[in-house]
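name: query_chain
kind: protein
chains: 1
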Amino acid sequence: MADVLRELGWTVHRRSPERAGVGPIPTTELVLLKQVIDAPGSTVGELAQALGLRQPNVSAAIRVLAGRGFVVKETSPKDRRITLVRSTALGRSEHEAIADSWAGPIQEALEGLSADHQAAIEQATEALAALHERLQALDPGGAQTGASV
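structure:
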């Protein structure tokens, strides 16, 4: 089953949607925007650690996202040396539109399945959500983190 889930994830991943007026957004920027939305006010280092990316790569992607108006960088009120990253309304709206763009083909594929397969997938939704939460609780190296999901 792990192989099927991995292949499914890869197939969905390869179908990166291109948004009208925005053009294709690289995967690094997509996952970074989602992480900024999920953890507003994170530092570049925290974002890099959460995603298992190198800090310079995250910094470069943040510059691109900021240039597109999807995120803003703010100085921490507690320590002026620290920069915090937050999504903008435009960034959240774009993320939602991208999620919808990805969901469309998945929904279309689901509708093309037999009623039995549709029911089986629907029944597995809760278990798949639990698996997703469990995977999120693991760091990129596979060790369990202290954060609860």
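note: Residues 114 and 120 are 10 Å apart (CA to CA).
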